């Protein structure tokens, strides 16, 4: 699924209107219906609903929604904020459509906003994608009053004041929505952690925008949905054998962190790899052989740390390296040898990233390799330097992938996968139960397994991150997010793959 800019969204609206021969008021009515459809499922008609409308089409949506909710017996009070002498045409059409008994309150001073109790519902229709400067003055005051009211706020299309595809200037007020209901496609702003407290829980409702326009629109930003990964999921063949599903090598674990190797290995085996060899420091041998009997185990000559590569490194189809390895000098040397010798794809995680990030010499060896990095935000900064905000982080992600021709799965709530072409794919599965030690090690195992099975590096990243998050979403149903462990996530990988291959009702 593509992510469009605010400007492209306006073009999509205009294109749909032309192509379907409908009026812009008709499209607004569709948007308002889609919004109220969601609202009715969430809130009871007994709720008091206060709808705050700005001067543009977002305000028009608010007025239409106020009318539709009134028809469905909600107790609705519309408010028109500020000077609307230059309001949009569709705003004015919907103002006229308000029934007699639904008279709006004109807010010309912040004091005209009533004291709202915790039980009140606010619909925020002040500004949408037409926002063109930070919100200050009366509108800013109204937003601050709503934010501090304790009422449950639902924003139409986007929280008012939030820029949808660039950094919002500090002086601008932004609605802190509990829910955001957006039209047709998600907005980039929703996917960035810095906006969590403004966007709240977000949903996208369809309004029938032209699929042709969306398909042809130029964008480097995507959201990965289930149907996207199902398109490239490879079925298991009846007459196949383990040799066809790849032989992976995991270089993981260190003294006190052998669990990282166990988790990566278990996740790798649960993601379809044909054969798995794990090389661990000597101290890890009995642990691996006991905890993961399906994996073959090699030992390093070093008791505690990774210090050497297996002799026949070229027999492996893919190498996953990093979880639990530490940053000893001997380990750094081994990583240098790995980058210098193998032409096979490598998945680098955790301390493998920290080691590469700290060495310009190793960075110089990254070019023209088949590499996937899976950093969390701190590890990413060790690769690219300090970042200013989420937009800056995304820019660095694109530049790093383009410069080195590599893939980076930048982990987070919506893990962002950067590609050498400068594209970014945001993931849509997963939950805060994943915020616990070891889940990243499991992801390394999953992605390594998929590369071993000849998925392209892009497919392996997108499918791997998606299925890892899906496993966590399925685990949520049985263990919840507080108690979830990395092992729970791995234990739910089978159901997650089943869910993709044989969609459950
Ligand atoms: N197009 C369609 O058919 C459909 C559109 N839809 C809906 O329309 C929304 C987009 O509507 P929109 O383009 O009218 O812009 P909107 O966000 O209401 O704001 C523009 C107004 O705000 C003003 N203004 C801007 N910034 C300001 C500031 N900081 N402080 C103060 N004023 C500011 C600006 O005034 P000006 O810049 O001229 O002073 C102008 O009056 C979209 O999000 C969706 O909800 C759906 O119904 C589907 C069909
Ligand atoms: N709040 C969250 N919502 C969804 N996914 C999350 C959240 N927090 C962490 N994750 C996911 O959990 C994993 C954590 O990886 P990482 O930080 O490397 O952990 P570790 O090194 O302990 O294994 C990543 O896949 C990340 O995307
Ligand atoms: K809004």
Automatic annotation (TrEMBL):
(6S)-NADPHX binds at residues 57-61, 128-134, 139, 157, 260, 324, 376, 441. Keywords: ATP-binding, Isomerase, Lyase, Metal-binding, Multifunctional enzyme, NAD, NADP, Nucleotide-binding, Potassium. K(+) binds at residues 58, 124, 160. AMP binds at residues 411-415, 440. InterPro entries: CARKD, Nnr, Ribokinase-like, YjeF_N_dom, YjeF_N_dom_sf. PROSITE patterns: YJEF_C_3, YJEF_N. Residues 225-500 form the YjeF C-terminal domain. Its cofactor is K(+); Mg(2+). Gene3D superfamilies: 3.40.1190.20, YjeF N-terminal domain (3.40.50.10260). Binds 1 potassium ion per subunit. Its EC number is 4.2.1.136, 5.1.99.6. In the N-terminal section; belongs to the NnrE/AIBP family. NCBIfam families: yjeF_cterm, yjeF_nterm. This is Bifunctional NAD(P)H-hydrate repair enzyme. It comes from Pontibacter anaerobius.
């Amino acid at each position: 699924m593509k992510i469009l800019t605010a400007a492209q969204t306006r073009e999509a609206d205009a294109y749909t209107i032309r192509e379907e021969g409908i009026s812009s008021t008709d499209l607004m009515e569709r948007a308002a219906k889609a919004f109220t459809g969601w609202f009715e499922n969430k809130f009871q008609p007994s709720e008091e609903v206060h709808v705050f409308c700005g001067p543009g089409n977002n305000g028009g949506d608010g007025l239409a929604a106020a009318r539709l909710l009134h028809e469905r017996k909600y107790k609705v009070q519309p408010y028109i904020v500020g000077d609307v002498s230059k309001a949009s045409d569709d705003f004015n059409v919907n103002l006229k459509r308000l029934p007699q008994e639904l008279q709006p309150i004109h807010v010309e001073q912040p004091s005209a906003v009533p004291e709202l109790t915790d039980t009140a519902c606010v619909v925020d229709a002040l500004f949408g994608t037409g926002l063109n400067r930070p919100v200050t003055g009366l509108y800013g005051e109204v937003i601050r009053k709503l934010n501090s009211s304790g009422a449950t706020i639902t924003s139409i299309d986007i929280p008012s004041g939030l820029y949808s595809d660039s950094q919002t200037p500090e002086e601008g007020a932004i609605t802190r929505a509990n829910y955001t209901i957006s039209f047709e496609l998600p907005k980039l702003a929703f996917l960035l952690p810095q906006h969590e407290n403004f966007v709240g829980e977000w949903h996208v409702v369809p309004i029938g925008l032209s699929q042709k326009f969306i398909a042809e629109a130029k964008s480097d930003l995507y959201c990965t949905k289930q149907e996207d990964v199902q398109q490239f999921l490879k079925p298991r063949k009846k007459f196949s054998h383990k040799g066809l599903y790849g032989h992976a090598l995991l270089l993981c674990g260190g003294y006190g962190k052998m669990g990282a190797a166990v988790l990566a290995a278990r996740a790798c085996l649960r993601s379809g790899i044909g054969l798995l060899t794990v090389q661990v420091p000597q101290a890890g041998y009995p642990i691996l052989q006991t905890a993961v009997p399906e994996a073959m185990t090699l030992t390093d000559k070093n008791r505690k740390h990774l210090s050497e590569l297996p002799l026949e490194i070229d027999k492996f189809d893919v190498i996953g390296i990093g979880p639990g390895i530490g940053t000893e000098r001997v380990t750094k040397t081994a990583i240098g040898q790995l980058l210098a010798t193998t032409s096979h794809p490598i998945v680098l995680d955790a301390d493998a990233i920290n080691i590469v990030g700290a060495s310009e010499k190793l960075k110089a060896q990254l070019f023209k390799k088949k590499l996937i990095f899976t950093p969390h935000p701190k590890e990413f900064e060790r690769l690219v330097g300090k970042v200013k905000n989420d937009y800056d982080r995304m820019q660095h992600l694109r530049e790093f992938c383009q410069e080195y021709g590599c893939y980076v799965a930048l982990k987070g709530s919506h893990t962002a996968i950067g590609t050498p072409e400068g594209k970014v794919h945001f993931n849509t599965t997963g939950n805060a139960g994943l915020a616990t030690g070891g889940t990243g090690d499991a992801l390394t195992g999953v992605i390594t397994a998929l590369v071993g099975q000849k998925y392209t590096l892009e497919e392996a990243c997108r499918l791997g991150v998606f299925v890892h998050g899906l496993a966590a979403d399925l685990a949520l149903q049985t263990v919840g997010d507080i108690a979830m462990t990395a092992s729970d996530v791995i234990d739910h990988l089978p159901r997650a793959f089943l869910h993709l291959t044989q969609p459950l009702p």
